[in-house]
Amino acid sequence: MKKHIKQVLGILLICSVSTAIAQPDYNYSKMQREKLNRGVIAIRENESDVVISWRYLSSDPIKTAFNVYRDGKKITEKPVDVSTMYRDRNKSKNAAVYEVRPVLKGKETHHIDGSYTLPADAPTGYLNIPLQKPADGVTPAGDSYTYTPNDASIGDVDGDGEYEIILKWDPSNSHDNAHDGYTGEVYIDCYKLNGSHLWRINLGKNIRAGAHYTQFMVYDLNGDGKAEVVMRTADGTVDGKGNIIGDAQADYREAGSLDKRKNKTVNQGRIFKGKEYLTVFSGLTGEALNTIDYIPQRGNLKDWGDNRANRSDRFLACVAYLDGVHPSVVMCRGYYTRTVLAAFDWNGKELKERWVFDSNNPGCEAYAGQGNHNLRVGDVDGDGCDEIIYGSCAIDHDGKGLYSTGMGHGDAIHLTHFDPSRKGLQVWDCHENKRDGSTYRDAATGEILLQIKSDHDVGRCMAADIDPTQPGVEMWSGESGGIRNVKGEVIAPKLRGMPTNMAVWWDGDLLRELLDKNIISKYDWNKKKVNPLVRFEGAVSNNGTKSNPCLQGDIIGDWREEVLMRTEDNTSLRLYVSPVPTEYRFHTFLEDPIYRISIATQNVGYNQPTQPGFYFGPDLKGTFRGYKFK
């Protein structure tokens, strides 16, 4: 591939891949979206070098180049026009201010300049974000617990074009819904990238801690330029200003009862009753702006499939452009049996119900029991409005069922444009029913394109373009018989140690790398093996065998993705930024609605990696904003 061809400019708004046209049909001229700044970041690579990285935006003219300044002095001999990254020879340990200025036809345009201050004695390889760890606690049963940073999200809460980090603190006694026991209280914090702590919300004793209880949506819902935070609350929740929601004295936790057959206490710490709310919080202050009753209420537990809240307290959530213009928040309850999705709009003053989908309603029975531990959102049918891929079924933008495959519950799911030769988006899913195994389907119709049946519980599956010799995105699971291409062919046998948790665009090429625990690996398609690429020493992953970071995605800098992880002592977050040179530049993935929403929903249930709503990889062909790519 010739170097000048590699200098590809943005692909998000106008993209032709092979003979296909991307299925999503958003009207970007009307769609309410974030106003991003230049996203400049400077990271010390080693003792001598500092890597500066910044965003290339769709509002930048096609031939925009960039000058880089350090402490007011230009350090680029000529404007950077290949990538949006620059390496500065800087051995000084003093603080330095790096500035990036757009250049067009030899003149600086000052169209969205950006700057970043590299602190004195900055760490090597990452941005350090110090945390304020909550105090340890003791349960009513006398057991002590402590806290670790868990899932995170991003949102511009103050309107300056830079993201803040919204972080959930997980108590050491958090539980899966299947397990009894008291849990510590769940805290939600907001931090600026420089470590400034803006607020803390305490969800209170009546919100149990665990992966399935608190799904927090961070997004600018009313278009005022500042993100809100939406999540389920209860009596005793304390907002970021110290205000209490509902009855501060209420305690709905079960004390437990003795099971004489098993000679042990059961149901202790579970919550079977009590009020539940849905609250919109200010992203800037953490103040509760509006609280309504949660839809649906738990009601009769057996209506959800059991009497221990294992089925009723399975929550999901997402953001979706249901009218193609404004983002709505969708709160969901249940996926093993009864399934309810409730969509709301926020106008800055009140939450207004848009629609409610309930599998208990006549004609919706086929949608019961089809949900996953996560979900995906995107315009899959080309009407310019988002649909919700709810495991083995899909809900249309108007709150009506789009289709149900009937293949039931699963742990992992991926939505993107897998096949450059096929129109539209596809879904790769895995199932726990010891029957349907792993399935690859058309996202718009539910048509099964490939199925690898299995009599095992298929817990994890992954999709990423890791092999340039094969068309499109590759896919695999624990029971897929190896790595498959979009034609369904096995291109590599089942590999021992093949990661199935997360993925990340990290190095300089268009292939994706694999992320598991604190290691990024690269697939060797010639030798059919996975090789470690980088290890984040001193950082650790979350959520047990899921081994995911706090967050993964294109958060700042150029089109590559960052990895946000907690330190071993739980006192800081580290935002790792790729120092690897690249000969490509693309509009930030954040400008693609499907990708941006995949970041917003990453904290939901079992975390899934980001995926764009278009094909991205070495098979790119066609015209991009006037440039030919072969």
Write the layout of secondary structure elements.
Blueprint: H1 3-6, E1 16-17, E2 20-21, E3 41-44, E4 49-53, E5 65-70, E6 73-74, E7 85-89, E8 96-104, E9 107-108, E10 114-118, E11 126-130, E12 137-138, E13 144-145, E14 147-155, E15 164-171, E16 187-191, E17 197-202, E18 217-219, E19 228-234, E20 257-259, E21 264-266, E22 276-282, E23 288-293, E24 315-320, E25 328-333, E26 340-346, E27 351-358, E28 376-378, E29 387-390, E30 393-395, E31 401-404, E32 413-416, E33 426-430, E34 438-442, E35 448-452, E36 461-464, E37 474-477, E38 483-484, E39 490-492, E40 502-504, E41 513-516, E42 519-524, E43 529-535, E44 539-540, E45 551-553, E46 562-567, E47 572-576, H2 593-600, E48 622-624, E49 627-629
Antiparallel strand pairs: 1-2, 3-4, 4-7, 5-6, 5-8, 8-9, 8-10, 11-47, 12-13, 14-15, 15-16, 16-17, 18-19, 19-22, 20-21, 22-23, 24-25, 25-26, 26-27, 28-29, 29-30, 30-31, 32-33, 33-34, 34-35, 36-37, 38-39, 40-41, 41-42, 42-43, 44-46, 45-46, 46-47, 48-49
What does this structure look like?
The chain is an all-beta fold and 630 residues long. Helices cover 2% and strands 35% of the residues. The strands form 15 sheets. Strands 5, 6, 8, 9 and 10 form a five-stranded antiparallel beta sheet that branches. Strands 11, 44, 45, 46 and 47 form a five-stranded antiparallel beta sheet that branches. A four-stranded antiparallel beta sheet has the order 14-15-16-17, with no helix packed on it. The longest helix is centred in the last third of the chain and has 8 residues. The radius of gyration is 24 Å and the shape is globular. The chain starts with a helix and ends with a strand. The relative contact order is 0.14.
